[in-house]
Amino acid sequence: MIELFIALQIYWSDADSGRLPSGEKFRLHDVDAPETWKPKCEAERAAGYDAKAAIISHTRGQTVTVTRDYGLDSYGRRVVDLSGPDGDIGAWLVANGHAQVWDYDGGQRKLDWCD
């Protein structure tokens, strides 16, 4: 299902997850951003808040589209690809140093942001 919505209605929990306008939780597919909730170290926490601020700024007032829906993850979040005016939002996060590519479906271990 493809859904159009205005990014102002998205709540970003951190740079790779949040809530859609419907209130449903989502997670971006195949990217990992540093955690803002229960980070493993202070460096991850700081990077997480920087990444969150960047994605909020990047999507504020922009039309964002769910371009692919992968279904629910083990936490009940909808796993999606999002696209904005500059293309794929996950790719933008990676290109701007706010996230790393993460093989979500392939069982790759979660990245360590404390190294």
Any overview of this molecule?
The chain is an alpha+beta fold. The protein has one domain: OB fold (Dihydrolipoamide Acetyltransferase, E2P), CATH 2.40.50.90. The chain is built from two helices and nine strands. The chain has helices at 42-59, 89-95; strands spanning 4-6, 11-14, 17-19, 25-28, 31-32, 63-72, 78-84, 87-88, 100-101. Strands 1, 2, 3, 4, 6, 7 and 8 form a seven-stranded mixed sheet that branches. β7 and β8 (87-88) form a beta hairpin. The longest helix has 18 residues, at 42-59. The model has no long low-confidence stretch (mean pLDDT 88).
Provide tags for this entry.
alpha+beta, two-stranded antiparallel sheet, OB fold (Dihydrolipoamide Acetyltransferase, E2P), 2 helices, 32% strand, seven-stranded mixed β-sheet, 115 residues
Walk me through the topology.
Elements: E1 4-6, E2 11-14, E3 17-19, E4 25-28, E5 31-32, H1 42-59, E6 63-72, E7 78-84, E8 87-88, H2 89-95, E9 100-101
In short:
31% of the residues are buried.
CATH hierarchy, class: Mainly Beta
Q: Which word captures the global form?
A: globular
Total beta-strand segments: 9
Q: What proportion of the residues is helical, as a percent range?
A: 10-25%
